[in-house]
Amino acid sequence: DGKHTEFSVDDDGVVWFEDRLCVLIDQALHEKAMTKAHSSPFTPLEIPMWKWDEISIDFVTGLPTTQKRHDAIWVVVDRLTKSSHFLPIRKNYSISKLVEIFRQEIIRLHGTPTSIVSDRDSRFTSRFWKGLQKAWGTRLKFSTAFHPQTDGQSEKTIQTLEDMLRACALEWTGNWDEYLCLVEFAYNNSWHASIKVAPFELLYGRKCRVPICWNDVGKRLIEGPELIEITNEKVVVAKEKLKEARS
Questions:
Q1: Using CA atoms, how far apart are residues 201 and 170, in angstroms rounded to an integer?
Q2: Sheet-wide strand order for 84-89
Q3: Which phi and psi angles does 75 have, rounded to 5°?
Q4: Is the model's pTM score more than 0.85?
Q5: What are the residue ranges in the chain where pLDDT is below 50?
Q6: Which residues, by range, are in coiled-coil regions (predicted)?
């Protein structure tokens, strides 16, 4: 029809759409392809040069809807320190809304990353997102979808978070998003197997004080003992669920 197409055929007769392999709509073929992909060796991503230069992003969905209508979590992981941000969102957020959250919660604290590893979510493969990445001077890199060996840290972080959060949801029905910040704190302040220290130790040079020490600087007098007690309880629960999720 004379229209430009992004499809191509390589020397082996394999059909590609841009940089993605095309597979027929056949469940058996899909399962065979995924099994083969998981058993194949992949070159791991290079180790980043500095903190928050290179990040991994993904989503945890299917969570109970909270009173604030949040039903998903945006997981953003620094590939070097493994420090992470867990951002409560709605799964139907627009691209512009996600970009605004990214600017407020990530760029504000860590600056603009040089590369992003994504799971090829449609929100991040859109032309708008790619155009914004180009404007930022960010190179958008894609890990192989559903292949933890390519870039396992975000997948492992997401799985750990999801397991921990679903367990915490039993404790905090309907308002898990209110305590997500404490789950994030517990995760970042806990020992991480791949780096042999807590992410905060690599990020800040030491672990951060837990809320139980707030009274050292008079915070208990300002906030009141009830709030401190509640916060302490939530952190304890989060850390317990984190241990369970990692076991």
A1: 30
A2: 84-89, 72-78, 54-60, 115-118, 139-142
A3: -100, 125
A4: no
A5: 1, 38, 125, 143-150, 213-223
A6: none
Phi, psi of 59 (to 5 degrees): -130, 145
Annotate 201-230 with b (16+ C-beta within 10 A) or e (fewer). Answer: bbbeeeeeeebeebeeeeebeeeeeeebee
Dig out the tokens for 68 from the structure.
């604030």
Q: How far apart are CA 15 and CA 8, in angstroms?
A: 6
Six-digit token string for 41: 């060796």
Tokens (6 digits) for 56: 């991994």
pLDDT tens per residue, range 136-182: 666 666 544 344 444 555 566 667 767 776 777 667 768 889 888 88
**Whole-angstrom distance, CA of residue 144 vs CA of residue 147:** 6
Distance, C-alpha 47 to centroid of its chain: 18
Cβ–Cβ < 8 Å for 147, 155:
no
Task: Return the SS3 of 157.
Answer: helix
The answer to whether the Cα torsion of 151, 155, 157, 160 is positive or negative is negative
Beta bridge partners of 187: none
DSSP letter at 4?
Answer: -
Amino acid in the structure at residue 76? V
Ordered domains of the chain (ranges, CATH): 7-39 (no CATH), 54-246 (3.30.420.10)
Pair 220, 226: CB distance under 8 Å:
no
Pairing of strands 72-78, 139-142: unpaired
What single DSSP character describes residue 40?
Answer: S
Contact 43, 149 (CB under 8 A): no
